[in-house]
Specification:
The complex is a heterodimer. Chain A contains 19 helices and 15 strands. By secondary structure, chain A is an alpha/beta fold. By secondary structure, chain B is an alpha/beta fold. In chain B, the strands form 3 sheets. Chain B has an 8-stranded mixed sheet with strand order 1-8-7-3-4-5-6-2. In chain B, helix 6 runs parallel beside helix 8. The longest helix of chain B is centred in the middle third of the chain and has 14 residues. The chains are: A alpha/beta, B alpha/beta. The interface between A and B is large, with 39 and 36 residues.
Chain lengths: 497, 377
């Protein structure tokens, strides 16, 4: 019997019933922005959500198909494909698999800098007083390798860790041997101002495959103002150190981070231009952390979040112009947020995750053996607030650390899905929770969203990026995608009409 | 180039597959060969040991034979052909070509409006499987790429696993690409079996025609197909089976093409390749042409947007079955010469074209209907 063809109505009838899948929404740019559980978004005309909820939405429109295709709703004409949606959500939450990945070892608190915003450093301390002992290091390594994560990062920081170079030489071979024995991948990083880096030290880092993360706050006047040291030559030493580190350790293994102080706020273009001048291809426009000495010296370094957001927006505009001119410079926070908004994937960035990355994805082993949920936690401890001290390497196991009262109290408020102000926020899928930040700034881990700087920063940054997305300028989006995929910048040629 | 002919068949009841010997071979080498006799000299030859005989003239022999062939064939030494008891002769493999295909069944669970190879509801599986097992054995040199096509190959049941096992054993360095509607892959056990084969270079090419179920199901004329195909993609990925997404461009798929691209990126980010293909004017297309036809010139904006969208996101995209003169220049880099030598055609306008060498040309059946914007570059 020859086969026959059937009309479209046979396959796509008007559905009898429509069911909603979970989504959140907000008004934005005169439209409604809908975001589903997997972070997929859709701009729809105002009134769409009301029509959907009240059941008056016409199932015959192209918008209905959009909503169905993006898992905002399903109907009786096809299966809801919940396992596909589940796979997408799983992909977004990849960061919660595997256990703690980032392990920060504070090898010493000693430092020859006296940065205004630094939370922890000790100047002029005698060797040994604030240094990690080999016994502490051994225990910390054992705890680190008890994490089930298949890929671990050991970050050595301080103080200035190069002042305790013998501890670095102690940790590196032992960590490598343990990684080999347990079949784990291992990344090694040292966070240093490079001021005291000798060529011999750099050669050791090169030989052992240790990456270098350093500080560069901007041009000389700003960097030296933010980062005082004897001789007022922090900038000159950083630039010299970067040049030598690139030569010895390799260009791709040297990264720089900046911190925004109130002195920085009026100079975002100069800061960015300094990164270009130093031939960096990434920059992270970071607000100052409200911890440690930064809180004490708030008058000197602190500022309103609104001013930082202005700084970020102006900076991003300038960065895009630089990219348009053909020089690749990615802004890291933008890249993190856009990965969450535009792609099916999440990010490994521990400071913007839900459940919060603290303790789950990062542990800090202090020089004295105390274990903290994050770098910020140990800064709070320096201010005599031990709320986030999970335990001590000499007494605790991975199990007791992660089930400590401190950890459990924090976990309670570490999921933005369950926080008032976040649970129904359209941007929830792109954001995170930060109980430590809210404890430090609001005296309460749960936090109060309308007055939270964390909320203000992320809401406004995400909205700002959506303004670029809504504009959909091909050149700008091409630059963003080049950052997200690691592919070359879009070519400057204008395609023929 | 003709790949089939007919003649009068004698002395066999089931298809005979063999390698063409255009010249006489020593007795010891004859066993896999079908002797092709160019002249009417069958009577004076000793044909002992050949698997069969093909002849333009009359060939009195007790071997399986198809003689008095209607058309002159371009068969050459080493080609693999099949002789059918009804006198049908078909070329299955030509060593001089780079891409090879193996046709495994005419049965299909879908009935796509634009199918280039309309399905037939008869059980050809056993006969074709026997033929294809022999074909795999006779391919020499071993092909770089082999596409398994139908019909719907997964309807072969266990026979498909047999063929893949055989391919793995005898053609270990041949990349196998199975063109399937992907619906069977929705069964986790099926994907598990494919994965268990441990074939070193196996992938599936699976069509997706819309980001919404109803539209896709209409194009493939099968209720529930979208849900099954999508689950199939995911089951395949879960089992480490590589997949390609194939989209035929026509009046039903173009309007939501940008959304389909986004759907692929969000839901099938593991797809290793997306192929955007021109409509072939063959098979069912003629019957449904009023509903399907859109001049490729008229969908360049949509096509360019989809290509840009996917490639920007790092997904490899190719455009098949399109002529360069109809494509926007920004798309030329994505156009592949995808039409087999024996199927392609150039129009008189192509004679003066400076880019003819780089262009895939047209399917021979496009002589009947093609873009009205074809012009020399």
């Amino acid at each position: 019997m020859p086969r026959t063809f059937y009309p479209a109505e046979n396959f796509a009838p008007v559905p009898n019933s429509v069911s909603l899948l979970p989504f959140r929404f907000t008004r934005l740019f005169g439209k409604e922005l809908l975001v589903n559980e997997a972070g997929e978004y859709l701009f729809a005309p105002e009134g769409t959500v009301h029509a959907l909820v009240s059941g008056s939405f016409a199932a015959t429109t192209e918008l209905y198909k959009d909503l169905k295709a993006k898992h905002f709703l399903y109907d009786d004409t096809s299966s809801p494909l919940l396992d596909i949606l589940a796979a997408k959500i799983r992909t977004k939450f990849q960061h919660i698999y595997g256990g703690t990945k980032l392990h920060i070892f504070v090898v010493t608190l000693r430092c020859e800098h006296s940065c205004h915003y630094c939370q922890v450093s000790r100047q002029g301390a005698a060797k040994g007083e604030f240094d990690m002992s080999t016994a502490t290091a051994d225990r910390a390594l054992a705890l680190m390798f008890d994490s089930p994560a298949p890929h671990l990062t050991l970050e050595m920081q301080g103080g200035e860790p190069l002042l305790a170079f013998d501890m670095i030489r102690y940790l590196v071979p032992r960590a490598k041997a343990m990684a080999k024995e347990r079949g784990k991948m291992l990344d090694l990083v040292v966070t240093t101002n490079l001021a005291v880096a000798t060529d011999e030290m750099l050669q050791y880092l090169a030989d052992e495959g240790v990456k270098v993360s350093t500080s560069l706050d901007g041009p000389a006047f700003l960097h030296n103002q933010n980062r005082p040291r004897p001789g007022n030559d922090s900038y000159e030493r950083a630039i010299d150190g970067i040049a030598r580190a690139r030569k010895i350790v390799g260009v791709e293994n040297v990264a720089a981070l900046m911190t925004t102080t109130s002195a920085s706020l009026d100079h975002v273009e100069e800061i960015i231009d300094e990164y270009v001048r130093q031939e960096f291809h990434t920059i992270f426009l970071r607000p100052i952390s409200p911890y440690g000495f930064a809180v004490k010296s708030r008058k000197r370094t602190g500022y309103e979040m609104a001013r930082f957001l202005e700084f970020y927006k102006r900076g991003l505009k300038h960065i895009l112009e630089i990219n348009r001119s053909g020089y690749r410079l990615a802004e890291i926070y933008t890249q993190i947020l856009l990965t969450k908004i535009l792609t099916p994937y999440g990010t490994g960035y521990v400071d913007l995750q839900s459940p919060a990355g603290e303790a789950w994805n990062v542990l800090v082993y202090n020089y004295d053996g105390n274990v903290f949920a994050s770098d910020e936690s140990r800064m709070l401890a320096e201010m005599r607030d031990n709320t986030f001290r999970l335990g001590n390497v000499h007494k605790d196991t991975r199990r007791t650390l992660l089930t400590s009262d401190a950890a459990l109290a924090m976990f309670e408020s570490s999921c933005n899905q369950t926080l008032v102000g976040c649970s129904d926020c359209a941007f929830q899928a792109y954001c995170g929770a930060d109980p430590i930040f809210h404890h430090a700034t609001q005296g309460d881990m749960y936090g109060h969203r309308p007055s939270s700087d964390f909320c203000a920063r992320n809401m406004e940054s995400i909205k700002h990026l959506f303004s670029y997305i809504a504009q959909d300028d091909p050149a700008t989006m091409g630059i963003f995608w080049a950052w997200l995929t690691g592919r070359p910048l879009p070519s400057l040629e204008v395609p023929c009409a | 180039m003709r790949l089939t002919t007919t003649g009068s068949a004698r002395n066999f009841a089931e298809g005979v597959v063999g390698r063409i010997a255009a010249h006489d071979l020593p007795q010891s080498e004859r066993v896999h060969h079908i002797r092709l006799l160019q002249d009417c000299d069958g009577a004076i030859q000793d044909l002992t040991g050949y698997r069969g005989v093909l002849a333009y003239g009359s060939a009195p022999t007790s071997l399986p034979v198809v003689d008095r062939l209607r058309e002159v064939l371009t068969f050459a030494d080493g080609d693999v052909v099949v002789l059918e008891p009804n006198g049908f002769v078909r070329s299955l493999y030509r060593p001089r070509e780079k891409h090879h295909s193996m046709f495994v069944t005419e049965r299909c669970s879908s009935n796509c409006l634009m199918c280039s190879q309309p399905p037939k509801d008869h059980d050809d599986v056993d006969a074709l499987t026997a033929r294809n097992r022999e074909l795999i054995r006779l391919m020499n040199p071993k092909p770089e790429y082999l596409t398994i096509t139908g019909g719907e190959p997964t309807l072969l049941g266990d026979h498909l696993f047999d063929l893949l096992d055989e391919a793995k054993r005898l053609l270990p360095s041949t990349a196998i690409h199975i063109l399937s509607n992907g619906r069977t892959l929705a069964w986790p056990q099926y994907c598990a079996r494919i994965a268990e084969l441990g074939h070193p270079d196996l992938s599936f090419g699976i069509p997706l025609y819309s980001d919404v179920a109803g539209d896709h199901d209409y194009v493939v004329q099968a209720k529930g197909a979208f849900d099954q195909t999508l689950s199939g993609f995911h089951q395949a990925a879960r089992h480490g089976i590589r997949v390609e997404v194939r989209i035929v461009l026509h009046r039903l798929t173009v309007p939501r093409l940008a959304r389909l691209a986004e759907f692929i990126f969000r839901n099938l980010p593991f797809a290793e390749h997306v192929a955007l293909m021109g409509l072939e004017f063959v098979g069912y297309t003629a019957r449904n042409v009023a509903e399907l036809w859109i001049d490729p010139f008229d969908y360049q904006l949509e096509l360019a947007a989809a290509v840009r969208f996917l490639s920007e996101r790092g997904i490899t995209v190719s455009i098949y079955n399109h002529q360069l003169c109809v494509l926007q220049p920004e798309l030329w880099g994505y156009a592949r010469k995808s039409i087999s030598d024996w199927k392609n055609l150039y129009l008189p306008a192509c004679e003066q074209c400076a880019r003819r060498e780089a262009c895939g040309g047209l399917f021979q059946w496009a002589a009947k209907k093609h873009s009205s914007h074809i012009h020399p570059l």
